[in-house]
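Researcher: I'd like a structural prediction for the single chain below. Treat it as a standalone chain; there are no partners to consider.
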Amino acid sequence: MGKWLLSRAAAGPQRRRSAWWGIAADAAPAECLDVGAKLAALAPRVALLAMGDGPGRRARGAPGAADPEADRYDDQVAAALAAADPGALAALDPGRDGGLFIAGRAAWQVLAGAAGAGPFDAVLRYRGAPYEVTYVVASWRRRA
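Model: Treating it as a single chain, here is the predicted structure.
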């Protein structure tokens, strides 16, 4: 999905240059922050599409899958994205990834590294849980 979105943005009237970068879901927070900082330094203006999966332990219909901790994690990530808070994303604990089946923490920490200290304005564009999986869409724009 990310590659498709990037290809659509690159094909626009201004022919923007785009590149695909991935990071391992289990990458250490320091590595994620470093990759983000390097991405942000590539050009005077950089747009970043960060995509990641939240907890896979939210499914109410699957026996043994429901986990209230997954809801708390979703709330934490959504609040950080809604507030454009790179510090909160940087503080996500990789120790929670395995038990909650999280694959997005590393991508969100790359975003935190790219954002640096901010400041950003944020818009939370969507938060929902169709099919018992949480989707959060937010956009950040650096303040002038």
